[in-house]
Design brief:
Helix content is 41%, strand content 18%. With 701 residues, it is of the alpha/beta class. Among the domains are: 61 residues; 80 residues, OB fold (Dihydrolipoamide Acetyltransferase, E2P) (Beta Barrel), CATH 2.40.50.140; 159 residues, Rossmann fold, CATH 3.40.50.300. Strand 20, helix 20 and strand 21 form a beta-alpha-beta unit. It binds adenosine-5'-diphosphate (ADP) and magnesium ion (MG). Adenosine-5'-diphosphate binds next to helix 12.
Length: 701
């Protein structure tokens, strides 16, 4: 038995000890040898280059030099003291400066002995200096295990302060290799390694920490990134397979009378071919005897609601209830109203349940639900309160999923013996790579086509200084009988500043568009739901021409006569929000406009966002830009998803590799779903190890 293995506590590693072990645990989450082995550098610097002192530039970055310390002195300053050493090579001199650990350094620094120093240079009063340089005797430098590409590990202030330097981390890893040897268990099959031309796990682990050269470093990175993405995909896809085989769902065999009646007699338009395709996918799921878990993506205005309705009708035809959940009261109400209208004359009971439904009415709804008298329940979060019990919920449809947390979704399905089918609809297009990573275990349908006759919304960028001409434009549009939104940012509902902006804006608009010629609605988050609803209704009915609002109108609101969307302080909105807001217009037959108002000063990200909006209306393209600007961790609640806590891969930069990994995982599981084949033994073992630690979890069930 070797003394150490991968599961050995890090405190047993040479040079670590209990104190440092604690630091490594709390600061970096490193508990074991294995954790340290998989603590990968986040960048590398080329240390083949040595500079001479007379080559230093004022803006030199991290550099290394060889020279000798010729003199050391302590300089008193207001607070504490600093240690200053004169460092010379044959071309000149510079200063090395320390503010901490002075006493120890003073005793241990060797005079007139060659050192290699490394760090960032500063220039002041004609002298170059380096604060807290990394330094090592030239002699030991020559002996130590190191390579041209010096790895730089991420660190924290606490680690730095406690003396756990980059060099020390590198040393620890060197010790680790000394203790464990250079051979590590392979985790991929020979056929995958051969097919993709990967290097072995052992070679990759060594070269990621001590790259012999750039080419081996690149190969090590490729190998480890692939592996990371591959195992995530393997888990997601296996989960999907298991769900389909094991998780039973209601079997909706037939398309019955309600569906057919509606389809033949009530459907107000022909479905687009994208809607038909999606409906087919859903019908197939519903009749598969397994639980449906489908994500329906479709840009704003692509017509998801009608798909939701038809899906609910299938459930009702099979004797089950349906629920439709929306993130805001306004949206839920709008869904309710439009469904009531669509279903008029049909023998279907539909009710609305939101926070503002009175207790008395609520009780009636609860009763009807339990007795099965209600066919469709529409609502907000109120739907998932414990008191709400369905007799037989067959399908739960969740609109605008990114507003809901994981826990909320799972609640819906605790209410039944068999889980209801789940359809999650989102108008926030999710870039393919992100969808693969975060929703890789779900089935995904896309409505990639807008209903016919839509005109693209013309989008323009205007500076605040041009406000008067914008107002003039609005007046012209209103004169044509159209309606206008003016939206203010309200990033944080409690921010007083934002309200002030909104109210100031409202006042100046009221002045510019005076009564009685112009009527203005105002809606914001601090209003009572009833007041909001009242103002919304005035706008919907066309009694007001202008709607001044915060982003409460962001999602889903459908008013076809509104033809202009003015977004104030557009630079403060994220891309997906801008896209959502723009989607509020362009819903009728007339040409619509979106005007992005900003100040002159824009950050480069803000410029990119505005330019993207002006240049494209393709939600997927916009989402790709968003992903690049913000990184995957910040998009629509993906923080919750462990899937994106990647060690080395990056789903934006390594998109191609991600696709390869997913394909490899699918190919493998198609041939060997249980990973039983002997050639896949390494994969199986690694997979089991990962599942034990439960690296990933899905975000739907
Ligand atoms: P979203 O996908 O944003 O939820 P909606 O379902 O609200 O979109 O649909 C937007 C508008 O398009 C609605 O007025 C709806 O009646 C209309 N619509 C949906 N499908 C079609 C279609 N196939 N043909 C014409 N109009 C449609
Ligand atoms: Mg919608």
């Amino acid at each position: 038995m070797p003394l150490y293995n991968l599961n050995t506590s890090i405190s047993y590693l040479k040079g670590v000890g209990p104190n440092r072990a604690d630091l490594l645990k709390t600061e970096l989450g490193i508990h074991t040898f294995n954790d340290l082995l998989h603590f990968f550098p986040n960048r590398y610097i080329d240390r083949t280059q040595f500079l001479k002192i007379n080559q230093l530039q004022q803006n030199s970055s991290e550099i290394q030099l060889i020279g000798k310390i010729t003199n050391i002195k302590t300089v008193q300053q207001k607070r504490g003291s600093r240690l200053v050493a004169t460092f010379r090579d044959e071309t000149g001199f510079m200063e090395l400066v320390w503010f901490r650990g002075i006493k120890w350094l003073k005793d241990s620094l060797k005079i007139n002995t060659p050192y290699v120093i490394f760090g960032k240079v500063n220039y002041f009063n004609g002298v170059f200096s380096m604060a807290h340089p990394e330094l090592e005797l030239l002699e030991s430098y020559k002996k130590s295990l190191r390579t041209a590409m010096q790895p730089i590990y991420s660190s924290t202030e606490k680690l730095t302060n406690k003396g756990v330097s980059n060099r020390l981390v590198s040393k620890m890893i060197q010790h680790l290799f000394e203790e464990l040897g250079l051979k590590f268990k392979e985790t991929l099959s020979k056929s995958i390694i051969d097919k993709l031309g990967l290097i072995s796990k052992s070679e990759a682990l060594f070269n990621i920490h001590f790259p012999k050269n750039q080419s081996l470093l690149t190969k090590a990175q490729q190998r480890l990134k692939f592996e990371e993405l591959f195992f995530i995909q393997l888990q997601l896809i296996r989960k999907k397979i298991v769900r389909k085989v094991k998780i039973k769902g209601f079997n909706f065999e037939k398309v019955g009378a309600h569906f057919n009646n509606f389809y033949k007699n009530k459907l107000p338009f022909d479905l687009t071919s994208a809607q038909k395709k999606v409906l087919k996918e859903i019908r197939k799921d519903l009749g598969s005897k397994a639980q449906m878990n489908r994500l329906l993506q479709g840009d704003v205005g692509s017509g998801k609601t009608i798909v939701a309705l038809l899906t609910m009708l299938i459930a009702i035809d099979n004797g089950y209830q349906a629920a439709l959940m929306a993130p805001t009261e306004i949206l839920a109400t709008q869904h309710y109203n439009s469904l009531v209208e669509l279903l008029e004359g049909m023998n279907i009971t539909i009710k609305l349940l939101t926070g503002s439904v009175k207790t008395k009415d609520r009780k009636v709804i609860h009763k009807q639900l339990e007795l099965g008298e209600l066919n469709i329940l529409i609502g907000t979060h109120a739907l998932i309160e414990d008191k709400v019990k369905f007799k037989n919920l067959g399908i739960a449809i969740i609109d605008e999923q990114h507003r809901f947390g994981v826990a909320q979704r799972s609640k819906l399905w605790e209410k039944n013996t068999l889980p209801p089918h789940i359809l999650v609809m989102t108008a926030t297009p999710i870039p393919r790579t992100l969808a693969m990573s975060v929703y890789g275990d779900l089935d995904i349908s896309v409505i990639d086509e807008l209903p016919p006759g839509r005109k693209e919304v013309k989008t323009a960028h205007r500076y605040d200084a041009n406000r008067l001409s914008v107002f003039k434009f609005l007046k012209d549009e209103i004169a044509k009988g159209h309606q206008v939104y003016i939206v203010y940012p309200l990033i944080n509902e409690s921010e007083a500043m934002d309200y002030k902006d909104l109210m100031d804006g409202y006042e100046s608009i009221s002045r510019e568009f005076p009564l009685p010629k112009y009527q203005i609605s105002i809606v914001h988050g601090k209003m009572k739901p009833a007041d909001k609803e009242f103002e919304m209704q005035r706008f919907i009915k066309g009694e007001t021409q202008i709607m001044v609002a915060t982003t409460v109108i962001e999602v889903g609101v459908n008013i076809p006569n509104a033809s202009v969307m003015v977004i104030e302080s557009a630079e403060r909105f994220g891309l997906s929000q801008l896209h959502q807001l723009r989607g509020r217009v362009g819903r009728g037959a007339t040409q619509s406009f979106c005007i992005l108002m900003t100040s002159f000063k824009l950050t480069s990200d803000a410029k990119t966002r505005i330019e993207t909006m002006v240049n494209t209306s393709d939600g997927f393209k916009i989402a790709e830009v968003d992903l690049k600007l913000r990184g995957p961790g910040n998009l629509m609640g993906t923080q919750q998803s462990g899937v994106l806590n990647l060690r080395i891969a990056d789903i934006v930069k390594d998109a191609q590799l991600l696709k390869t990994a997913r394909k490899s995982a699918i190919d493998l599981l198609t041939i060997d779903p249980l990973l039983k084949a002997s050639e896949n033994i390494f994969i199986r073992q690694a997979y089991q190890e990962l599942s034990k630690n439960s690296i990933i979890w899905s975000n739907i069930s």
